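ok new one. same drill as before - structure tokens go in, u give me an amino acid for every spot. 220 of them this time. try not to just spam alanines like last time pls lmao
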């Protein structure tokens, strides 16, 4: 899960929490803060602690961008005072907490073992909260995250095959630009980073391409 930095609250006072959308998108890109799917329609401003359960409606620290699927899954489960039971991409090292080696994300047990039981539980709580491993088995289940993530993974794998063939040629710079643009359009930063896990040059390009990425967590 891409760790992000939102920066300080906007100087302009927000009249409605929905007004934060333009600032969040400007700083983080139009991607879901949880599943990393590109948001093609209007992103939803999500409250980490549900406003209907006492969460601060206008607090910058309580707001993230979300796709409708993650926002719906999360619902109003996290009430005021429960935020510390979860990892959050704008507060924690969510990049190392989850793995994207296969078609379905999972907990990074090796990393979390070193972080201790409390951090592992927070990671699992967030994972279950938005159901990152959900697979819609029937058309009636409206959740496109799995399909769109697999599509992005196929783009990344194809790009890696092409890059391995062309990276020593004169066309390498042009191909790097193609990789950057394709990654930005297909989203799922962590999927791309996993596919290119052994190529630091491309990984650095990806880190820079997705604005708002908290670089110190992704460079290691």
């Amino acid at each position: 899960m891409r760790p992000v930095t939102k920066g300080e609250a906007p100087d302009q006072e927000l009249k409605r929490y929905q007004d934060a959308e333009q600032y969040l998108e400007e700083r983080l890109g139009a991607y879901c803060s949880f599943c990393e799917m590109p948001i093609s329609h209007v992103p939803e401003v999500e409250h980490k602690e549900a406003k209907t359960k006492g969460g601060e409606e206008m607090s910058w620290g309580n707001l993230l961008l979300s796709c409708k699927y993650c926002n719906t899954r999360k619902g109003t489960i996290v009430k005021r005072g429960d935020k510390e039971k979860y990892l959050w991409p704008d507060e924690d090292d969510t990049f190392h907490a989850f793995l994207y080696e296969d078609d379905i994300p999972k907990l990074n047990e090796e990393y979390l073992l070193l972080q201790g039981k409390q951090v592992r539980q927070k990671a699992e709580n967030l994972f279950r909260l938005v159901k990152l491993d959900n697979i819609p088995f029937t058309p009636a289940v409206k959740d496109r995250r799995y399909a769109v993530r697999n599509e992005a993974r196929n783009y990344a794998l194809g790009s890696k095959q092409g890059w391995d063939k062309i990276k020593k040629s004169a066309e390498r710079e042009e191909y790097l630009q193609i990789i950057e643009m394709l990654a930005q359009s297909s989203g799922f930063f962590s999927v791309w980073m996993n596919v290119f896990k052994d190529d630091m040059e491309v990984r650095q390009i990806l880190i820079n391409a997705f604005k708002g990425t908290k670089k110190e967590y992704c460079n290691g």
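Strands lie at 44-47, 63-66, 98-99, 106-107. and btw The chain has a mean pLDDT of 95.
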